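Bug #77: duplicate submission created two jobs. Keeping one. Sequence:
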Amino acid sequence: MIMIDTGDRIAAKAAQMARPEFIAAYPITPQTVIVEKTADMVESGELDAEYMRVESEHSAMTAVIGAAATGVRTFTATSAHGLALMHEMLHWAAMSRLPIIMVNVNRALGPGWNIWADQSDSLSQRDTGWIQLYCSDGQEIFDSIIQAYRLAEMEDVQVPVMVNFDAFVLSHTSMPVDVPEQSEIDAFLPLWKPLWRIDPEDPVTFANMLPQAEYGGMRKNLHEGLLRARAHWPEVCREWRERFGVDHGALVEEMQCDDAECVIVAMGAFGAEARVAVRELRKQGFKVGLLRVRMFRPFPDDEFRRIAPGRRFIVIDRNVSPGAGGTLYVELKSSLYGHADSPVSGFIAGLGGRDVTFHDMCDMVKKVVSGESLDVEWWGIKD
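Kept job's structure:
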């Protein structure tokens, strides 16, 4: 079935087809459509789930933690300040090893108030223990949500996943999506079999006070769970491609890197624009490729180290880690340290939803190639 709709409604459709048994919801622009649509589905009987309206995003995450701890599949969605308000409970979900799936619509944080695209909200949560995926179009939004459940619920992973996509550019833009039959999704995503759950008939204490000698091992175990997720993700993507014929790449989407001298690195909707930039630059004689990051956390170190020798990376960040630079830029520099001597240039662009076109990306590449920009530059901002 071909569905033409906005990114938010596509996300709601994917959530429905994953068959969650519990949804906690609190509205926030530009995510609100997702929880509204899932509410409609529950009310109409299209989705057999318990739907809880809560008083805040902190409560939404608390509620799905409680539900997941009883062994049921859960879903929620948020954005920007809502995600920030969840911060405490994001740690709790990950350390409890609960495979919760949450959509985050990337939006700028205030002040000043801004409701447009900016990835700083999710990237500021990168150390909470959640797997982070980033989408570049409607089909990838749908596919990634279903794939995220499959990954999170693997017995040796059991880690929550945050599926991210850009505000308005994707959340409110209509795109065609190929939606499989429910039976096909069910075959790919079987019922979750929790490794532990709260059961009144068999009372056990979870997440109680932990001695100093044990706490570090618990954190190490979570870290290893994310590393196993990174190893399994290509398997999940390969099976999806074989079943449904759709391929977004695995840890990264790689485009024309074999003979590239420069490689653009981007995430989210920027990745889609960068594909156009690569094609345009190739026409002009520039040997340029693209590595679009799908899984940011855990970071795809080996993918970059494999590509790095003899190439320059040009990172275009729609986010900033204040005092450090673009977050993706910083992560890539760290990943390559001691492994490859490839130069990395960075641009911080599009914060707060400012438009960044493939023409801008072409100009960025040309500026780096000419030697004018070799470190980090804020693009489109007048001093």
